[in-house]
Amino acid sequence: MNDKNKVIAGIVIFFVLLTSPFWYNLLAAKTPAPEVVLTAKAKAAKVCVRDTAWMKANHMQLLDEWRDAVVLKSERIYVSPDGKEYNMSLSNTCLDCHSNYTEFCQRCHEYASIEPYCWECHINNPKETE
Amino acid sequence: MLEYAIKGDKRYYAWITFLLALIGIGFGVYLWQLRFGLGITGLSRDVSWGFYIAQLTYMVGVAAGGVMVVLPYYLHDYKAFGRITVLGEFLAIAALVVCLLSVIVDLGQPGRILNVWIHLSPHSVLFWDTVVLNGYLFLNLVVGWNVLQAERNGTHYPQWVKPFIYLSIPWAISIHTVTAFLYCGLPGRHFWLTAILAPRFLASAFAAGPALLVLLCLLIRRVTNFDPGREQIQTLAKIITYALIANLFFFGCELFVAFYSNIPGHMDHITYLFAGLHGHGVLVPWMWASMGLMVLALLLLIPPITRRNEGVLAVACAMLFIGAWIDKGLGLISAGFVPNPLHEVNEYMPTLPEVVITIGVYAIAALVLTVLYKMAVGVKEEVAA
Amino acid sequence: MEDSRRQFLKITGIAALGLSTASTAGVLAADQGPQPYTRKGDEALTAKQWGLVIDTTKIDHELAEKITEACHTTHNVPFFDPEIVGPEVAKRHEIKWIWETHYHNAFVDSGSNNYMSEEVEHRPFLVLCNHCEAPPCCRACPTEATYKRDDGIVIMNFHRCIGCRFCMAACPYGSRSFNFRDPRPFIKETNLKWPTRSKGVVEKCNFCVERLAVGKAPACVEASDGAIVFGDLEDPDSHIREVLREHYTTRRRVSLGTGPAVYYII
Hints:
- The complex is a heterotrimer of chains A (130), B (385) and C (266).
- Chain B is mainly alpha-helical.
- Chain B contains 15 helices and no strands.
- Chain B has one domain: Up-down Bundle (Formate dehydrogenase/DMSO reductase fold), CATH 1.20.1630.
- Helix content of chain C is 32%, strand content 14%.
- In chain C, the strands form 4 sheets. In chain C, strands 9-2-11-10 form a 4-stranded mixed beta sheet. A two-stranded antiparallel ribbon of chain C has the order 3-4.
- In chain C, 43% of the residues are buried.
């Protein structure tokens, strides 16, 4: 076995390729975070189920908990920390206010490069006519 | 040892290229299935399992059949099989590749497959099937690899391998038993609801698995410098003969119970297979061909004069392998669903895309088998030289 | 199990954060104050074992169609038009939660009576999921995607289904359908209040849990003009038990030991 150098070079190249997304992100210019648009209804409500910062960071966990509560425990009412009650329904509660999928949900998801498949089943948007 | 797999002549590389081409085509069609859904298959609301699951069932048998060389060698110290145990173990690995991939291509939401382990459900036989299949794959990889490596180094395999070898013997029985339990524990599917299903599966497995091994041994003798041995092949032939007799006997038991009891629920499925029901009978010619092939194979296997002729033996093994494949691969799954629980007849036949995906799955297994056998034969040739 | 898993993740998460004291303080601060919680709605209907009694003497073909339609539009069940997809594909990919069949199909074990009442032989029989006491489908499911709720309803968690179709093989009533393709293009009028399904999952009758949760009767019961009664089979004072006391009823394939919760007046 006299290919020691070749093997090491190969490992190094593999490692660099493997970590290339990190290098790319470090070197490339930052893409600004997208601005989401609130519908008139969402603006009028002023506050979501939880405060905006919390929702930005945790809405997926919230939806996961809602899903389990409704499907597994047949509990459908969510009582928020400030005592307000909500029907735990993606289609009928969340998307009732946030009825602008392309300007709200999609914008951030695209920026974060994720493709949640919620909308394969949950009706995209009752009001938006596309 | 893997280096043996990348050193080959032109024929070897042509074969690998051919397999890769089949895999590519199969994978392409699978991508289509992923996009469209399982609607591109012939499956239906009534016959909800078909060709894919049938391959799982059949190849689990071939995998379990590997134990027919492991058991005589390790438990009965039948030395002659020492030459070919590794071939049996590697065949089991390739067969398990078909099984596991067939389950995956059969799933409607393959991306969620880890749910089986995230939400462990010990009440589901399918969960246990994943346990026994993956366990058997692991056992054969560990045992086969270590024993072969020891042979290459001219040493005895390490002591810690021994428990795995012993464990692999009952484990082989378990994989086919659990696979039978997928079917025979379901209320209202009378064709499968029979305590003899697991024994029947094992009998056909111990015939079909070794039959394929005989064919592979004959092929290896022809294309390499390693001879698996005449005695080995003849002993396998006797095992195959006994197993095939048991398989046909068990089937006879099924026929007796169904038709002597005269219970419609039990007779209908068998009638559908061999005579058609309410004017539907796409499988009738297939089933008679299957029975014909198996009986004919048995007639060639029983007389020593024909069994000892390796040419005839090869023909008998091929007939038996195909006959058992039709029986278990086409008939057994379909007939369980026809007639349906409301006694309606909706038939099933696989579609072309379904068959092409299955060929792709088999090509992957053939590639795995080729690489493993190339290694095994390489070691055997090196030791002999 | 779900809860303990989440608890476990939470604890390990906190433990990981605990490596830095500053963030531990942050977590503790966030845990103070009123916590959100979930509960059942006040008007939700509850039972120990929901069940149905179908009075087949009151259901003709028109009513059976109306009931089926009510169920299927409520739950966005697709219809594969044979004229569009071809008769063979329409049959193979068919999805149905409740449908009309003959006596001899619904009651296969006793269906081969040679000399039957002609009227019964031609009467429509509605069949659907039986929400069995001992459901074989739940036993078969390798992911708990289908399970029996505390109120006896056998339900699908579509999020979790891997589409192995073991439950379809296990169901002795043929009550389950599989999404062989994306159903959306084939839904005639979409009920925006309820989701559709994605391709690759199994579906079936859910006893209208979403309606029970807001105090409404199942859609089939509502559309049946009194021909279908629903109620708690384990409550001796319930209306359904009164109906069962007063009428001779039968169930489908009782000999299999599944304990169907759908009764038929014949």
